[in-house]
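Question thread 4412

I'm putting together a teaching handout and wanted feedback from people who do this every day. The idea is simple: show students a protein as raw sequence, then show them the structure tokens that encode its fold, then repeat with a second protein so they can compare. Below is the first pair exactly as I plan to print it.
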Amino acid sequence: MPPFPTNVVIREVGLRDGLQSIQTILTTQQKREWIAAAYAAGQREIEVGSFVPARLLPQLADTAELVAYAKTLPDLRVSVLVPNLKGAERAIDSQADLMLVPLSASHAHSLANLRKTPDEVVAEVARMRAARDTAGSKTLIEGGIGTAFGCTIQGAVDQAEVLRCMQALLDAGADRVSVADTVGYASPAAVRDLFEKARHIAGERFWCGHFHDTRGLALANVYAALETGVARFDATLAGIGGCPHAPGASGNASSEDLAFMLADMGIETGIDIEQLLALRVQVAQWLPNETLHGALWLAGLPKTFDGAAKHAVHQDAIA
């Protein structure tokens, strides 16, 4: 088993995965303030929105404006979600650094969510790659494999199908691949097993883990993924978000809780947790009627925590 990463990136996806799942529509100015404060707190990868029709997700109608603003912040990697070629073309035009293409390993979820089979999504990725290359764009393509541990519609999802989809995405021209527990079915043992096999297939192109905290296991699943060497995770401020096909879903891993866990393990994230907690207070004021999650904001930072890498990570502790 490889050692824990010494540095981990927390990609903030609250402005997309979080906001698309709630009723409140933040103003563009509020979102700009969110991006600026997250950047000031040390976050350097932010998914600012999604290029989908505004009639479907009015919460994300200002994505192009947010990309333009976020691109003015030095060294910030700006990503967006795109469901199809038209969305990809808009991402390329916006000069986003990365576009995430969702693919559900569950056939039933794929049809419900995207109206495409997994293989049709792979074919779309090939067209996106051709469009990207023709445009001479530097926008990276990440294929994100959702429902990788099960599905509320279909039930079980075969691990072999997840890995087949991953290889197909790479073959179609995706620069990166990631794995998501869309409906909160994953357990640490299942994560460790799948992520080890995914790393064998994709190597360093296996880019990110995305865990929902539906059953309280998001951070435990991050820990299991860390054991396989994965060093980038999606999370949302205050754990907002969910999936329309996951009844009772309680949202994503909380950015502030994840940053605290990693810092306390001696893993560098570049994030000032107190500033992130201050941003959480601000966003909570903007979302007074929404259910927020997370534990750190309730209890606060422990007196023993100084924000530095306090605990050496010993190889024998993870062998």
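The second pair follows. I'd like the answer to focus on this one:
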Amino acid sequence: MITAPQLEIAVLLLGMAILMFEAFATRVDKRVLAFAAIVGLALILIASFFVSPTPSPDRATGLWNFYTADKLSVFFKQFALLTTIFVLIMMIDYAPVVRASFPGTTDGLGEFFSVPIFTCVGLMYLVSAVDFIFIFVSLELVTVSFYVLVSFTRKNPVTLEAGVKYLVLSALSTAFLVYGIAWIFGATGQTNLQRITEALANPNTDHSAALLGVVLVLVALGFKIAAVPFQIWVPDVYQGAPTPVTAYLSVGSKAAGFVVLLRVLRPFVTLPQMQRLLVLIALLTLIYGNLAALPQGNLKRLLAYSSIAHSGYLLIGVVCLDGNAVVFYLAAYFLMTLLSFAVLVIVAQQTGEQISDFDGLAKRSPFLAFAMLIGMVSLAGVPFTAGFLGKFFIFYAAILQRQIALVVIGVITVGCGFYYYLKVVRAMYWQPANKAEDIPISGLSRLAISALIAATIWLGVYPQPILNMLKR
């Protein structure tokens, strides 16, 4: 059997090995490093199915006071590994853009392939963290890695602007997180989430100070999950960052943020003030994300506002304390978002990122058009796709908890989603093509996109494997 911390150590060693090889093997095609990283991460993904169980919280000692390897955390480690593998495949397709930003040399391409591996380490640690100190360290590892990735093609002024905005607002969110942890520690004398729960059960604990602390922590996590009113950085950063990095931000970072949010809120679920605050944030996020996406003409910007809207749907599950619905929705979101970005990476290099650049794509590349069609209809929530069942479970949880306002607003905003997602479908199938030549697709990208299409439809028709895993 394999212990869970060995998975992170293996990923870390893989990243260091690829980084060192990139530094000394100057004459090797740097795309080889991406293939090596994909193979290494795939082997670690297989090993993650043989992880030994974690000690129970009452018997935890040493590292296990900060770290857990329960079924939820192991699932999201696999989630982070899979996300990183697909992002690396996108980065291989995106390599010409990176090389163009470093004219006359291939320097930088190796780092572009290795930094996501270190981001993966941070995500894997983050989903296992059960202590505020460890949560802070893991979150900073993820954030610092994204500082580098977002502004990697730094000679592009739009990318540089995105990097600066992400740096400043992430630093601000870190300040909120540290200040909130300080308040919680001052009120309870603990940083371990299990012990904080026990301390809050003590009537002598200052619940007002602890509540202020968790609100500050919620503000910090609100930045990470792109919840209103902390979403101001999302559109510009998503549009300016390299497209594979945008996909990584949208999927990996959001998933880890919601896992941490579920863990952090667990000691405070009995406080009615927290419930009302979460309902308000969920409503604002749903309304803003969907309405702001309606007039967008840039596909990356549209997907940015779409990401905010999906945070609203996920927050409904958090409000209802239905972890299973949140996990299923995240799994569906993983498939349909990566599918959309995988097509965008290929098409944008030939035409552009505007929705009008997808005009007539069905004639130029029927395979890519069909893939984007599946991604868009799943994001909209059309039946027989993963997105439909994700929204169904979220709304079902809200109905059981009698959160009528969330259900009503959620259903109305789903209707808005149909409008702006199907704009892309109309451009691909009903508009005349701007160009006549075909769009080339590599064999690896075709395989990855085919797998995402099949999984999106399969999870929408037969979700039982994921549901069985959640029951366990």
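Top answer:
Good format. For the second protein you could add a caption like this: The chain has a mean pLDDT of 86. The two ends are 19 Å apart (CA to CA).
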